[in-house]
Amino acid sequence: MLGAGAQGAGVAADMAAAGLDVTVIEQWPAHVEAMREHGIRVHHPGGEAVTPVRAIHLCEVAELRQPFDVVFLVVKAYDTRWAAELIAPHVAADGVVVGLQNGMSIDEIVAAVGAERTVGAVIEMASSMFDPGVVTKQNGPDTAWFAIGAEHPAAAARLADVQSALARTGTVEIVDDIRSAKWMKLVANAGELVVSAILDLPLAEAARIDGVHDFMVGCGTEAARAAIADGSRLVPILGLGDLALAGPEAYASALLGEVLDVYTMPDTLTTVLQDWMKHRHCEYREINGLVVDVLERAGQPAPFSRRVVELAARIESGELRRGIENLDRLLAAV
């Protein structure tokens, strides 16, 4: 597990508890030391569990001697390339790297380890981490959802192994078109992640404000149009069946509804808001920024996503503070 933030640590704990041989590699020193001393403490809907794990610092990767059969890459989208290059020498010849992240990171992983060792993945569950060694998971195995797929036959041959490992955490579907499936997750992320963070509100609370839900759907619709412009298709994710036949706006609206109804609790904070609370850079360029770039190349407008990118950049530069006072600035785009 390369990257042990809220999502990576929670999944690693599930796998270790099931008896899998798990190594956790993490760049936050205090977190590594906490995992070594106390294991991973996970608060989840059913209670609490503490699971011992083998945890190592990023600098200790160079000391590894035994190659990994499966590497789950659970870092921010903007960290994909260097993380994939770091772990490439430590992946078995028939092993795979699974990009368990937001954003369209497949090609960056392929560049580092080859298509024959690359598995794409979609993750849908809510988790948070503010203290080293402690994770709060808001989805149990009954609602956490994953999709995995590969574009090379050699990597596809390992999908059953990846599915078996991830099944400790939630439902895992093997899909034929993982690139399209990842775009569909970006459709959901484009509407929720940065928008609620700009307002400094939990996702559910932000979506209830007049105009914000429609703005979120607008962002998702643009992302769906970007997916099509990029050569992908609207495909079912999260078990939503034939919804893809409804078109970009209906798809985006229904997908956001599913995220709000099934995967969101009253206090759910998006990963972007958690990043900003920790004074960290977020993935706005890899989510809404990608939508703007793809639609611009296709000669199509993206006013919703462009406004999100503009406000996120101003917040990260210190020009603006996140907060409800940004509401009018956000909605003025439309």
Explain what you see.
The protein is of the alpha/beta class. It has 2 domains: 6-176, NAD(P)-binding Rossmann-like Domain (Rossmann fold); 180-331, N-(1-d-carboxylethyl)-l-norvaline Dehydrogenase, domain 2. It contains 14 helices and 11 strands. It has helices at residues 6-17, 29-38, 80-87, 106-113, 153-156, 159-166, 178-198, 203-207, 212-229, 248-262, 271-277, 288-297, 303-317, 327-331, and strands at residues 23-26, 40-44, 47-51, 54-57, 68-73, 91-100, 118-124, 127-131, 134-137, 145-149, 171-174. Strands 5-6-7-10-11 form a 5-stranded mixed β-sheet, sandwiched between helices. The protein has a 4-stranded mixed β-sheet with strand order 3-2-9-8. A two-stranded parallel sheet has the order 1-4. Strand 8 and strand 9 (134-137) form a beta hairpin. The longest helix has 21 residues, at 178-198. The termini are far apart.
What is this structure, in a nutshell?
The protein has 334 residues and is an alpha/beta fold. Helix content is 44%, strand content 18%. It is built from 14 helices and eleven strands.
Tell me how many strands there are: 11
Distance between the termini: 42 Å
How is the biggest beta sheet arranged?
A: 5 strands, mixed
In terms of DSSP E residues, the strand content is: 15-25%
Q: Name the overall outline.
A: globular
CATH topology name of the largest domain, in short, is Rossmann fold
| Poorly predicted spans | none
How many separate structural domains?
A: 2
The CATH architecture assignment of the largest domain turns out to be 3-Layer(aba) Sandwich
- Mean pLDDT score, rounded? 96
**CATH hierarchy class name of the largest domain:** Alpha Beta
- Corresponding CATH superfamily of the largest domain: NAD(P)-binding Rossmann-like Domain
Q: Based on the structure, what is the oligomeric state of the protein chains?
A: single chain
Main β-sheet, spatial strand arrangement: 5-6-7-10-11
The radius of gyration is 19 Å
The secondary-structure class comes to alpha/beta
DSSP helix count?
14
Tell me the series of helices and strands, N- to C-terminal. Answer: HEHEEEEHEHEEEEHHEHHHHHHHH
Percent helix among the residues?
40-55%
